[in-house]
Each structure stands twice: as structure tokens, then as C-alpha cells.
Amino acid sequence: MFQPLGFERCSVNTSLGRMIYYTNTGFPWQDKTASTDKETLVFLHGFGGGSSAYEWSKVYPAFAAEYRIIAPDLIGWGESEHPARNYQVEDYLSAIAEFLQQTCDGAVRVIASSLTAAFTIRVAITHPELFKCLILTTPAGLSDFGENYSRSFFAQLVSTPILDKFIYSAGVATSNGIRSFLEQRQFGSSDRVYQEIVEAYLESAKQPNAEYAALSFVRGDLCFDLSQYIQQLTIPTAIIWGQKSQFTGPEIGQRLAQMNPQAIKVFQQLDSVGLTPQLELPGVTIGLIRKFIHLLDT
What is the pLDDT of residue 118? Predict the structure, then answer.
């Protein structure tokens, strides 16, 4: 898997299996003469065919001199374990909470993406002691405000046994399948998709049993209505939303933010950007994260 310079591979065991994560304990970030009590930033990737911690790898090294960085592959993705099971929302709520409890000492700042960001909001509601602030890109449950993603044509199609795995192996876990999805569905501008991104997603998508988590996501098993939970959030939060996000447009994000202005301090729309600004415009995303850390700390 792609690993930025100075980041080493570690692991913890959760109730669902072993989770791999990357942290800045190697050269040039390791400094034996400096204080080791740096605050922690946790980066959580979203879901889709081939997702992994790579999604944030153009962003988190920019913070490595100042913070302890933790960027995991979630269960079922990347290099973490891939149990052969139909994943449910509760699996990821418990896995995220367990991971933070095992790797972090006290409340931390968490940066998370898309459906995982929506899961993180729910974890922050039930375990507020784990969080100092949230910075989220396109946090959506994908069934928000009563929309039912699982009734969509594609979700119904991949709910067909045997056909689902054929669709994954022939249409998703291929170089052309990955590139097509990134260019047409995930990115706001197709010319921002370069070969390294395709290769990183493909390597993750071809891991043994990788289809189980991906198909659970595509079927809609992991979707929920975030609007039913958002008002319970108390952790200071900033939201970044790509204007060209095809799964859920910025109007959904604005409605969610307006439901809880006490916790959601900022809603920032980015024009001409899709679901993952951290890959499309990493420099802009880095600048916004720095800005929002300062804002949410005051």
C-alpha cells in the first residue's frame, strides 16, 4: 500500500479484527530531542470501491511536524482485516469507537470523510469524551431526510446473490472500473484523477474479501438518516462540502448544518469539487483544516 515518507505501519485489534494504521514515527518526523506529547489528529477515510487511508495521504503529512498523526484503514478496507460478513452500521460505530479508545489518550481532533464522517458524528454523540472537535468532508448518511438509497436501481441490482460479486470483480475492482468511477462519480473534475490514485484504489479493491464491505456499502446496508441524529451533536464541528458531490449535494449539507448551529460552527462549500476535496484539492483542504482547527479551538 502507498505509505508517505516518515509514516510507519502499526495495528490494533478490535472486536471485528485487526486494524492497520499509519503514524508519523519515522524519519524525518521522529525527533528524539523534542517533546513527545504532541496532540493527535485522526484521519478517517470514506467508503467506495478501493477506499483506504490513501484518501487522506496528500493531506496528513502536512501536519506531521506539529501533531501525532493517525490514519487507519477501516475494517474491510485497505490492509485491515476483511471479515467475510454483511457489514452493518453498528459494526463501524463500534470499530471507530474502539480504535480511538485504543490509540488515543483523551479527546482528539478527528477529520473524517463522507459516510464515515456521518458515522463519526454518531460516535461523537455516544462517546463525546473521545473528541475535541470534528472537521468533516461531506458528512452524509446517504438516506438523509427520508431518502432511501437502498431502493435505487444500482442498490437493488447488487443485492442479487452471485451477480453482486460478478459486478464487483468485473466492474469495480479493475483499473478501468476504478478510473471511471473516480472520474464520473467521485471527482468534480476528471482531469484531477491521475494514475497513482487509480493504482492505490485498485490495490485496496483487490485485497482478499474486499468485496464484502464494498457491497454492503453499495447495497445501502450502511446508509441511515443523519438528520435523525444531528441535533444531538455537541462537539464543535466544521463541515466542508464539495459543490459537485453527486451522491448528496450541498443543499443536504446546509440543511443538516442548520439543524444544529450550536455545534456546527462552519459550513464551507467548495465549488467545482466532488466527494473528496482531500484528493482533488489537497492544498486547499490542508489550509481549511488549519483554519478550522484554530476556529474550533477558540
Answer: 98
Sign of the CA dihedral running 211, 215, 218, 222: negative
Q: Are 137 and 113 in contact (CB under 8 A)?
A: yes
Residues of the chain with pLDDT under 50: none
Q: What is the spatial distance between Cα 11 and Cα 151, in angstroms, rounded to a whole number?
A: 37
Q: Tell me the whole-structure pTM to 2 decimals.
A: 0.95
Cα–Cα distance measured from residue 99 to residue 71, given in angstroms and rounded to the nearest whole number: 11
The number of residues in the chain equals 298
Residue with cell 502536512: 62
Classify residue 34 as exposed, middle or buried by CB count within 10 Å of its CB (0-12, 13-18, 19+).
exposed
Rounded to whole angstroms, how far apart are CA atoms 145 and 205? Answer: 31
CA atoms of 233 and 241, how far apart (whole Å):
18
Greatest alpha-carbon pair distance for the chain in Å reads 58
Compute the distance between CA of residue 77 and CA of residue 87 in angstroms, rounded to an integer.
12
Beta strands in the chain (DSSP E): 8-14, 17-23, 40-44, 68-72, 108-113, 131-137, 237-242, 264-270
| Composition of the chain by helix, strand, coil, percent to 5 | 45, 15, 40
Question: pLDDT tens for residues 156-201?
Answer: 655 666 567 777 887 788 999 999 999 999 999 999 999 999 999 9
For 157-203, what is the HEC assignment? Answer: HCCCCCHHHHHHHHHHCCHHHHHHHHHHHHCCCHHHCCHHHHHHHHH
Is residue 204 within 8 Å of residue 77, measured between CB atoms?
yes
Is residue 207 within 8 A of residue 236, CB to CB? The reply is no
Cα–Cα distance, 221 to 216 (Å, whole number)? 5
Per-residue model confidence (pLDDT) at position 2: 86
User: In this predicted structure, what is the pLDDT of residue 155?
Assistant: 60
pLDDT of residue 294: 96
The pairing of beta strand 131-137 with beta strand 108-113: parallel
Name which of 253, 283, 246 is nearest 269 in CA terms. 253
